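hi!! sorry for the late reply, been swamped w classes. u asked for the two structures so here they r. pasted raw, havent cleaned anything up. first the sequence of the first protein and right below it the tokens
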Amino acid sequence: MSSALTDLFRYPIVQAPMAGGASCPQLAAAVSAAGGLGFLAAGYKTPEAMYEEIKQLRGLTGHPFGVNVFMPQPATADPAAVEVYAEQLSGEASWYETPLGDPDSGNDDAYEVKLAILLEDPVPVVSFTFGCPSRAVLEAFAGAGTRTVVTVTSPAEAQAAERAGADAVCVQGIEAGGHQGTHFDDPHADCTAAGLGLLSLITLVREAVPLPVIAAGGLMRGAQIAAVLAAGADAAQLGTAFLVCHESAAHPLHKRAMTDSLFTRTELTRAFTGRPARGLVNRFMREHGRYAPAAYPQLQHLTAGLRRAAAKVGDPQGMSLWAGQGHRLAREMPAGRLVEVLAAEMDNALGSVPGTWTGAAS
């Protein structure tokens, strides 16, 4: 395994940065302390809130951790389509007694300010989602001693990350919960019919670029981690598996929904945010998914209040219940214990002596 990542963790287990609530300093600290790599999610947070979470995390652990940043989005949304969708959601606003949000609240998620903070007070790892930073940005982080990871969903995106100077790529398969980290969301594409499965994608990316690979997508057991390592990955990133942990800040309704018999499957949808994201199929997704335009982050802003209101009144049918395809395998336990269980399962599948993992073959 490349030294770009190997000294960051004892086990090749990365806790996915889950924007919107689940990721928090307590969860990241527990994962890192147990030998994995914990992550904070800067997405949807103000720069000040991001900085405060980093301070909290540093107070909880001295182990390496990462921070994930969303890339600014191009102004490609059709305002007329967003307005039509807003009209369709007027009934939801009445039902939850809350106004729709302003779709024009901004496209950049305070990207430049967050970069300035992370460069002024560097963290061990910064990852990027929804695009690839410029070479100048990645060189600046390299100069600050920060490792960089770019989320990719295709060999072409991995090649773009290599050209820009990323230290590693997070290869996200179609099985993954939450947003697909594509660099461009084709407004004419059917979001439910696109994307590659993780095992195929790992092989394609490994043959396209020499960068270390973090594999993400539906992973819930140590044997699956062993499988992606055998396929050529250097580490595995898990989100849904950590979402139900005791330290996770996910809403209790979201946690319970992972194994609730009412929610039997996941789908990719633009219903909540305008970008393809995998979640548990609920009423909101069924009623609005087919009509949602490709308009991120406009729909994210538009529906944010609705989702908060649904959570407040205890209605999971109106919430964005992001989940990977393996959600039924979720195990509620402390995050540190989950890292230990996953590592033991991985060692057993690899046939190695517990605690002796030394990296995937490159």
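now the second protein. again sequence first, tokens right under
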Amino acid sequence: MATLIDNLSEAAKARAARHPEKQKRPDSPIQRKPDWIRVRAPVGEVFSETKKLVKDNGLVTVCEEAGCPNIGECWSQKHATFMILGDTCTRACSFCNVKTGMPAPVDHDEARRIGEAVVTMGLEHVVITSVDRDDLDDGGAQHFEDVINAIRNASPKTTIEILTPDFLRKAGALEQVVDARADVFNHNLETVPRLYLSIRPGARYYHSLRLLERVKERDPSQFTKSGIMVGLGETKEEVMQVMDDMRSAGIDFLTIGQYLQPTRKHAPVDRFVTPEEFRAYETIARAKGFLMVSATPLTRSSYHAGDDFKRLRAAREAELAKA
């Protein structure tokens, strides 16, 4: 019993170190996952190689930091989503497992190491995301540009997808990142407007929506992408309204996945959405005009990103051929 208590105490200390702002929140029991959302433990030689490459190059991945359930599948195929600008976020979203606090100074050599990792892994498509850096005057825009340029120089044929923060109150930051010309510009709305105060308190729904619209206004050739989680207490009607808002902003690609509660201190799962409901959401979204839709319980922003990018590009070409 003493050993169990000690282990629980160590686990609680680890949670507190990652999320000090959540420690006064009441515990929410973590629900047992249904059969359709369980995944295999990560194993295999290629998985181990990917893990070693990430570690040896001093890189950070959102796969690890956010506790992504697809890490075993993706890393076994040498797919990893690099998280730049450190491992510590200045926001305190109630759904996210990335560490919260004051980040370290920007590592200006990170761009070079990511470029080298892309070459070593032979990536045809790479996804770059970041923590929020409200402490920086540009929100990290210059670093995004540096990373994009480093990948272009190291591996010119690799297509690049970025998943950015909202650059709230960072004048000129969005324009700088758009002008770096990634192939896909992703920024997640995460949830419906009604739930922002409890789920994403540091962000603003209409600012995020407008950010994606501004990407299209500045560079119509860039694909735009956004995603939401379901199972947080939203209604079907609210999800469909978000779809309409996204289409009004010209968003090309929609992802919808099941929210999974990282710890007892995070927002609780309201319910597990069934695979049938996800298929219904996909049908509705395609009818609304998205070029690409991924809606499954395990869908995440960068899940199957390379294959999905090829489908996205083919869908645009087919649409242009009709014009």
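hope this helps!! also noticed smth abt the second:
The first strand starts at residue 81 and ends at 84.
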